[in-house]
């Protein structure tokens, strides 16, 4: 069953998105990698949430208090049901059977009932119970906080994940021998297919913009990732939902490719998707805490630039400056900039140190850490690499190419090559969080990003799984 912990939801309070980078203009090219589209749909801000003319929620809910949280959750289940009634046969064999048994509980109440053999008190969660063909949710913490920080449509998306487990049973794409990770990744993918339907304007109950609205749904997916495990806990990697990158990748697969692709997810597919990226931190020794984070200092940034020189081997490496940016042919950014005229990367150490300070749900912020900052500096360095190839730096395509090349660099830094700085488990999740909140990694030389966080992440993922030539060919 899918365990979506509401304790993580408060992390999204920082996602009052679109922070630092402005949006770039330009001419679009290919559908999936088009700077002005999200998974092939036009990327634009607009209304998200319950439609003004939405029908009333339908169905009996065991344990309900009749409040707004239960009405929203019930409406979400109604909508996901309608989606699968209309689309199940297009992707799967067998017959679709709507889930009509619904249950609500309040995880803050000591008298909260046992559901599907598990306690619900102090366990803010949503779940599908196969024996009872039942979907249940927590109205006390999970739904209201999710609604507050991620929006109404995120609750429908969350329940679409749980409904996905029911669809797995009906379609026989998962069984008792399927690992938890595969099952959860399939459910994330199936939720992505539903969210695509909403974003296309086909839902009678919900609407979702492909800019800010979809960014918030993705932030929810990111926030509900698994913790970062140490090497000693490696077996848990197959017993959870996956890293933020795992979860968002699976969601994007469903959003862009449809439900049939979700059934193809297995451990081999997940392993291939992960490549050689780090998944665990070193084993803990003594009383020293496990952490992959470093404090962002001038020395660390100098080491980073040296490492990037080793990775890309430019004929004319850019200089690194900690002074106030002075540039005649590009606009300075708030944390880091690249000036083509002087071939200089400028870094504001104080701003980057604050951006790279470890912070997460306990601080009521979206995930951030050292790689949130270091990936931004990396993106400014790769602009110098692009400049050396005489490619345009001020276009929308340049913004995505920069994110892609940053992914190439990060992938190279994750391999054990004796580099002064290496990626550790959890770093990529920090970079992905930055792509959603400020978009700096996916910005051009003037600090202009593209509208959809969805597409920024697609570009970054392209680099993680590809090479520099792929980035130049894909984002022209």
UniProtKB/TrEMBL annotation:
PROSITE patterns: PROKAR_LIPOPROTEIN. It comes from Mycobacterium yunnanensis. Residues 44-68 are annotated as: Disordered. It holds the Pfam family Zn_peptidase. This is Neutral zinc metallopeptidase. Keywords: Signal. Residues 1-25 form the signal peptide.
């Amino acid at each position: 069953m899918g365990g979506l912990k509401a304790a993580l939801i408060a992390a999204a309070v920082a996602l009052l998105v679109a922070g630092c980078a402005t949006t770039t203009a330009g001419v679009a090219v290919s559908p999936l990698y088009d700077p002005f589209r999200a998974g092939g749909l036009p990327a634009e801000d607009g209304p998200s949430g319950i439609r003004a003319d939405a029908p009333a929620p339908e169905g009996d809910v065991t344990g309900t208090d009749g409040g707004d949280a239960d009405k929203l959750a019930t409406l979400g289940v109604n909508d996901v049901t309608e989606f699968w009634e209309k689309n199940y046969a297009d992707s799967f064999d067998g017959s679709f059977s709507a889930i009509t048994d619904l249950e609500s509980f309040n995880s803050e109440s000591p008298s909260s009932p046992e559901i599907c053999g598990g306690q619900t008190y102090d366990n803010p969660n949503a779940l599908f119970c196969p024996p009872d063909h039942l979907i249940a949710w927590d109205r006390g913490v999970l739904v209201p906080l999710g609604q507050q920080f991620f929006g109404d449509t995120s609750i429908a998306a969350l329940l679409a994940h749980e409904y996905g487990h029911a669809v797995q049973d009906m379609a026989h794409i998962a069984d008792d021998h399927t690992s938890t990770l595969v099952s959860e990744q399939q459910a994330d993918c199936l939720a992505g297919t539903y969210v695509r339907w909403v974003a296309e304007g086909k839902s009678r109950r919900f609407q979702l913009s492909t800019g800010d609205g979809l960014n918030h749904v993705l932030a929810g997916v990111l926030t509900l990732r698994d913790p970062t495990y140490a090497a000693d806990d490696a077996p848990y990697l197959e017993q959870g939902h996956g890293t933020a990158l795992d979860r968002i990748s699976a969601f994007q697969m469903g959003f862009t490719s449809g439900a049939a692709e979700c059934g193809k997810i297995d451990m081999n597919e997940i392993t291939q998707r992960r490549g050689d990226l780090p998944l665990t931190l070193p084993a803990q020794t003594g009383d020293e805490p496990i952490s992959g984070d470093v404090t962002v200092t001038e020395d660390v940034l100098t080491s980073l630039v040296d490492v990037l020189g080793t990775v890309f081997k430019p004929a004319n490496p850019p200089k690194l400056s900690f002074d106030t940016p002075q540039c005649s042919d590009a606009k300075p950014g708030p944390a880091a900039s690249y000036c083509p005229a002087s071939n200089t990367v400028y870094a504001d150490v104080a701003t980057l140190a604050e951006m790279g300070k470890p912070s997460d749900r306990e601080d009521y912020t979206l995930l951030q850490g050292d790689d949130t900052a270091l990936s931004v500096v990396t993106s400014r360095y790769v602009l110098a690499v692009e400049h050396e190839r005489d490619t345009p730096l001020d276009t929308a395509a340049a913004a995505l190419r920069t994110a892609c090349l940053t992914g190439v660099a990060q992938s190279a830094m994750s391999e054990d090559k004796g580099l002064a700085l290496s990626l550790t488990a959890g770093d990529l999740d920090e970079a992905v969080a930055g792509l959603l909140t400020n978009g700096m990694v996916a910005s051009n030389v003037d600090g202009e990003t593209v509208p959809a966080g969805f597409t920024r992440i697609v570009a970054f993922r392209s680099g993680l799984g590809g090479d520099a030539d792929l980035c130049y060919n894909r984002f022209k």
